[in-house]
């Protein structure tokens, strides 16, 4: 199974889904928080080979709320809770991926 980053091009939110093709990734994306209520053709899809290995049978999407998945998404793909500075720095202190987070580790924070 292949990993795909899916996103709304007008937002900064994204997720990772596992599917065989970009089209199947778009269909799955339509049922995620990041892309719900979007038209099939409007969803951006990009291949993320670096996280193919995290697929397990039955897994359709990486779960941001799962500490192991979050670590992979931040460390290997550059995901962050907030695109720049977090408005909730206390949450950042509890994050399992803070050591790899570009937003958390900004010099001017």
Concise overview:
This protein has 109 residues and is of the alpha+beta class. The chain has helices at 22-29, 67-77, 89-94; strands spanning 2-7, 14-19, 44-47.
Task: Record the SSE blueprint.
Layout: E1 2-7, E2 14-19, H1 22-29, E3 44-47, H2 67-77, H3 89-94
Antiparallel strand pairs: 1-2, 1-3
Structural key phrases:
3 helices, 3-stranded antiparallel β-sheet, 109 residues, alpha+beta, globular
What would your notes on this structure say?
By secondary structure, this protein is of the alpha+beta class. 23% of the residues lie in helices and 15% in strands. It starts with a strand and ends in a 15-residue tail after the last helix. It contains three helices and three strands; from the N terminus they run ββαβαα. It is globular. It has a three-stranded antiparallel beta sheet with strand order 2-1-3, covered by helices on one side. The relative contact order is 0.16.
- How many strands appear in the DSSP assignment? 3
Instruction: State the end-to-end distance.
Output: 39 Å
**Series of H and E elements:** EEHEHH
Determine the fraction of residues in helical runs and give it as a percent range.
10-25%
Radius of gyration: 14 Å
Percent range for β-strand residues: 5-15%
Q: Which strand order do you get reading across the main beta sheet?
A: 2-1-3
Residue windows where pLDDT falls under 50 for at least 5 positions: none
* Quaternary state of the chains: single chain
Give a quick account of the main beta sheet: strands, pairing sense, barrel closure.
Answer: 3 strands, antiparallel
Q: Structural class from helices and strands?
A: alpha+beta
């Amino acid at each position: 199974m292949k990993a795909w980053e899916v996103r709304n091009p007008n937002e900064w939110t994204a997720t990772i889904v596992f599917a065989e093709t970009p089209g199947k990734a778009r269909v799955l994306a339509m049922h995620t928080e990041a892309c719900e209520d979007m038209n099939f053709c409007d969803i951006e899809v990009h291949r993320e080979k670096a996280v193919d290995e995290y697929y397990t049978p039955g897994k359709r999407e990486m779960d941001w709320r799962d500490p192991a998945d979050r670590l992979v998404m931040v460390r290997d793909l550059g995901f962050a809770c907030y695109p720049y500075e977090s408005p909730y720095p206390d949450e950042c202190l509890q994050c399992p991926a803070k050591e790899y987070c570009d937003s958390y580790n900004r010099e001017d924070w």
